[in-house]
Please model this.
Amino acid sequence: MALVQPDIYAAVVRLLDGAQRGALCVVVRATGSVPGKLGAKMLLYADGSQLGTIGGAGLEEQVKARAREAMATGQSGCFRFDLSKWKPGGLNSLCGGTVEVYVEALIPLPHLLLCGGGHVAQALARQCDLLGYRYAVLDDRQDFLDSAIFPAATGRYLSTPAQLLPPELDLAAYSHIYLLGYSWELDARWLAAILPQTAHYVGAIGSKTKATSLRRELAEQGLEAGTIDRLVCPIGLAIGAESPAEIAVAVVADLIQQTKPAAAAGSTTSPPA
Model:
C-alpha cells in the first residue's frame, strides 16, 4: 500500500499559491530492500529546506540534486537508483534493492506587483488575465486602484507619504515586481523601500538613461551596490515596443522566458512536434 502524506499535499498547494519554486519527489517503484517505501514523498523548497523524506542517506541526496535541477529547468523526470555499491553506477549502499523516484518541478504561476496603475499597468493586467497570472496594484492615486480598472487584482494598495508600502502588503508573495509609476521620483522611493526587502525580480520601466539616474539616486539613498545591481531597467524583450499594449507584450514575453528557461533554449514560436 502506498503511503499517504496529507501534510505534503497541503504544502504543495501553499507553495503553488506563493512565489517560491519547489520539487515534489515521490517513490513510484521499489524492489527489494530500500529505505523509502512505495509512495514516500519529499517536498524540496528552493531555499534547500524540505518536508518529508524518501529514505534519507545517499539516495535522498541524489534525489535532492535531481530536484534542484528540476527547479532550475522546470523539467520533471523519473530516475532509477540501485542501492547496491557493488553494481556499476550503484549508490554507496548495502540495501541491495532498487527504487524509482519521480521528481516533479513545481513552478508557481507568476504573481506580479504592479507599482503604478497607469496605462502600461492596465495593459499588463489584461495580459495577466489572458495567461492566468495573478497581479496586485500599488499606487498613490486612489482613482487608479478602482476595481473597475483592475477587476481581477489580488490586492489594491494605497501608497501614502506616511506609509509608502502599506503594512498589509507582503512583498514575499510576489515573484515579479514592476515599477510602472508616472514619476521617476516616486519609482525611486518605491525602489529604495522594495529592493532591500525582496530577492525576487524587481524591474522598472524606462530608458537606459532613466536606469542610470535611478541607480545613482538609490546609491545616494544608501543602498548597497549589490542590492542596486538587482534592479532590471529597462524591462521587457527588445522588440521595439512603443505603445502600452506593445510594452505589456514585451514584458510578458520576457516573463515567460524567465519562468520557462528550458523552452527558451529551443524554439520560441511553437512546441516540438
Remarks:
- Residues 88-92, 263-273 have pLDDT under 50 and may be disordered.
